[in-house]
Write a structure and sequence with these properties.
The protein is of the alpha/beta class. The protein has nine helices and eight strands.
Length: 209
């Protein structure tokens, strides 16, 4: 049996609109020092060379801190840099393609939006965790599908894989999600949209203490 890092705690996701390129590794390290347990590199920029360089730098940083780096959407980039895994969505390459390319040791998460059926399907396929959201209005994705606390409760009752909640999560509303069954909180602007990412991360991490 392969021992993989648990998907639990603060799951910090980068955003190019919030972090200048020259501060990316610094900001991510601050989030890790504040208690982030997983990092996701999310960048839709078409400049492949830039994305490769950034992902390589983040993977080196995350390995130094023994924190998994997950690549958003891009299976080949995850393979190129040797990242811990990838996160795929409904419109991304099939889960099976990601698993075949990255191997059994890779952490593969699947976005399930507001649909329990997608989560059950992902679990059967061998996903390592599933994500629901947006749980609350999100400044990063204002038009995102909304998921409910009741969905989290239903998912917790039938799923065995870890559940990630995402979207508009603050230290104030996060306890509602944890009580409903979320194992991890995926946060973008709540960490990287703050002047002090380490202090911001610490507020979320304290919820898991």
């Amino acid at each position: 049996m392969i021992n993989k890092p648990p998907c639990r705690g603060l799951y910090a996701i980068t955003d190019a609109g919030l972090i200048p390129d020259h501060l990316l590794t610094h900001a991510v390290e601050q989030a890790i020092l504040g208690g982030a347990r997983l990092i996701q590199y999310r960048d839709k920029n078409p400049d492949a060379a830039r994305r490769l360089a950034q992902a390589q730098a983040l993977n080196t940083l995350c390995r130094r801190h023994a924190i998994p780096l997950i690549i958003n959407d891009d299976v080949e980039l995850a393979f190129q840099v040797g990242a811990a895994g990838v996160h795929v969505g409904q419109d991304d390459p099939a889960f099976a393609v990601a698993r075949a390319r990255l191997g059994d040791q890779a952490l593969i998460g699947v976005s399930c939006y507001d649909r329990l059926d997608l989560a059950l399907e992902a679990e059967r396929a061998g996903a390592d965790h599933v994500a629901f959201g947006a749980m609350f209005p999100s400044p990063t994705k204002p038009d995102e599908v909304r998921a409910s606390l009741e969905l989290l409760r239903e998912a917790r009752a039938v799923l065995t894989v870890p559940i990630v909640a995402i979207g508009g999560i603050t230290p104030e509303n996060a306890p509602l999600l944890l009580d409903a069954g979320a194992d991890a909180l995926a946060v973008i602007s709540g960490v990287f949209g703050r002047p002090d990412p380490q202090a911001a991360a610490r507020r979320y991490a304290a919820l898991f203490a």
